[in-house]
Amino acid sequence: MRILVVEDELLVADGLKQGLTQLGYTVDVAGSAEEAERFIQFEDFDLALVDIGLPKADGLHFIKQLRAQSKNFPVLVLTARDSMEDTVNGLDAGADDYLTKPYRLPEIAARIRALIRRSNSIADACLRHNGLCLDTRSRAATLDAIPLDLTNREWAILELLLMASPAVVSKDKLVQSLAGWDKDITQNAIEVHVSRLRTKLSHGNVTIRTIRGIGYRVDAPDN
Ligand code: CA
Question: What is the Å distance from ligand 1's center to 87 Cα?
């Protein structure tokens, strides 16, 4: 999952980047609305954390731009302003949720998980599939009740595939999602991660199919 943090205070931005990276997210930081607008032209994100008070154009302006361009990923507004008017303006501009400073990482993380689940129409905090369970809160994975030891990249790939299932996830989307950890990640590297994932999943009933020339798919769960 790739998150765009739009925050002009370096300390806050660094803290968010560090904390969210430790939780397994890929994080890009933009220090202004202008920089954030450039990011969204070229990159795909799963969610944005947006500070309202930014140097030139403010966060509300950025959110309006985002929605005007039909970028529909969830937006969580983070701001020092705690007036009711700002809350209403943020939500009216197209934000999905709102947190006022000072905020704590566990609360931000919980809201992020909820927003990503909602945007993928998933009601459960666990992603389940034919005996496979990814608990997005604890980041523990099990297959047929046996713990799976997944690297951050393997987790990220599997999470994207399960959220999209039974749709195909393109290799390009996977490269974009993992790019924050490894700027030079290639489609070949994705193939290597998928191959290792297949080995780790081989004792169960979860199959990652290669859709030639496009990407990968996990078929719909058996019922
Ligand atoms: Ca600010």
Answer: 15
Q: 17 and 107: one domain?
A: yes
Structural domain containing residue 57: 2-119
Please give the model's pTM, rounded to 2 decimal places: 0.74
Q: How far is the CA of 47 from the centre of ligand 1 (A)?
A: 19
Tokens of 106: 């566990």
Minimal CA–CA distance to 219: which of 166, 170, 167?
Answer: 166
pLDDT digits (tens, 9 = 90+) for 177-206: 887 665 678 888 999 999 999 999 999 999
CATH number of domain containing 213: 1.10.10.10
Report the distance separating Cα 179 and Cα 150, nearest Å. 18
12 CA from centroid of ligand 1 (Å): 9
Q: Calculate how far, in angstroms, residue 160's C-alpha sits from the geometric centre of ligand 1.
A: 31
Cα-to-centroid distance, 63 and ligand 1 (Å)? 15
Round to whole Å and give the CA distance between 6 and 57. Answer: 12
Domain tally, the chain: 2
Q: How far is CA 50 from CA 34, 107, 158, in A?
A: 13, 15, 27
Count the alpha carbons within 13 Å of 53 in the hemisphere toward its beta carbon.
8
